Amino acid sequence: MTTIAFHRVRPSFWLIVGTAVFAWLVAWLTEAPVSDWLAFTVFGLERGSNFGEAVAFFLLDVPKVLLLLVGIITLVTLIRGFFPPERVRLALAGRGRLAGTVAAASFGIVTPFCSCSAVPLFIGFVEAGIPLGVTFAFLISSPMVNEVALVLLWGLFGPGIALTYMAAGLTVAIVGGLIIGKLGMERYVEDYVWAMQGKGGTLVAVELTWTDRINDAWAYTKDLVRRITPYLMIGIGIGAVIHGYAPTELVAAIGGRSNPLAVPIVVLIAVPLYSNAAGTIPIVQALLGKGMPLGTTLAFMMAITAISLPEFIILRRVIRWPLIAVFATVVTIGILLIGYLFNALIP
Q: What separation in angstroms does the CA of 71 have from each of 37, 101, 221, 243, 296?
């Protein structure tokens, strides 16, 4: 059990925290006019030109996305510190199948993982005696409803699209977990994983001060930003090219409402790609700006993060191909249904 110590904190520490928050707010309020000034005054680019608009998009999104990451993810990480992985595993192990599936999908929002951590998470859940369907609800939700993507969508597009994204991802995770749990595919989990069941550790009480928690959240945020910045830069670069050069007619022909196969096409395109959810946000922003419907765009984003080939290859270390195929099929069908549903509901 984790405990919190409300020890007296030096005033200078809170002064540093307050100064950092103030600096973030100033940067957030000034980055848009500064990026516009750089693109069209300092660099002398022509407004409305393909190259000028692409560069302006890049200069606007880089600081905006990085500021969202540094500021909001620090806060989210601070809150998430009250829910360590050990506590999540024990909480899920003590619930029924339906309640556990819903809880696992919900925990996945605030407990993100990348493909490289899928194997240890899977083993840890099996060790705690968590049913297979509940485990897969978490494995689907955690990358698909990534908290980084959620705050970026909220900051860039507002709460409506962000909550739509969250609800869609949770629906796929819950339904997918229930289906996989009903199919009874435990025989397709590698034997050495089942041999570890019941060998999980116990919770250790750790006393943390608010100074510890803020320092830990800041350290995590710096490491996260460092690791995903290459993906962000690539994503922003692609988004800038789409924003500046991709004809609206081409985007409409491939992913527009007039194409009934738009959703499966973008899902198929996404499968061989690899990116975390944050790296897809600038591409999503550019595609929406070109007129691609929200459902099609969400389907593309979810497919990149939830049914990518690299994740399947890594998961093969703990589960066999028949279970991977069922997992991929269930999630793909869910993503397709969500794409068509939101295209029909949101004009």
A: 24, 31, 9, 26, 29
Nearest Cα neighbor of 144 from 115, 170, 176, 181 is 170
- Domain coverage including residue 146: 2-345
For the chain, the domain total comes to 1
Identify the sign of the CA torsion 249, 245, 287, 266: positive
Q: How far apart are CA 262 and CA 258, in angstroms?
A: 8
* Contact by Cβ (8 Å): 50, 236: no
Contact present, 240 and 57 (Cβ < 8 Å): yes
- Residue 46: which H helix or E strand, with range? none
Round to whole Å and give the CA distance between 306 and 300.
10
The single-letter code of the amino acid at 293 is P
Name the strand (E) or helix (H) holding 131. Answer: none
Residue 3 backbone dihedrals phi, psi, to 5 degrees: -115, 155
Tell me the longest C-alpha to C-alpha distance in the chain.
Answer: 65
Instruction: Enter the DSSP assignment of 300.
Output: H
* Residues 109 and 165 sit within 8 Å (Cβ to Cβ): no
Pair of tokens at residue 275: 């990116």
Contact (CB, 8 A) for 125 and 86: no
The predicted-structure confidence for 44-87, as pLDDT tens digits, reads as follows 988 888 898 889 888 988 888 788 778 867 776 776 666 555 66
Range list of H helices, the chain: 11-37, 50-80, 85-93, 97-110, 118-127, 132-144, 147-157, 159-183, 191-194, 210-245, 248-255, 262-270, 277-289, 294-306, 309-315, 321-345
pTM of model > 0.70: no
Measured from the Cβ of residue 273, the count of other Cβ atoms closer than 10 Å reads 16
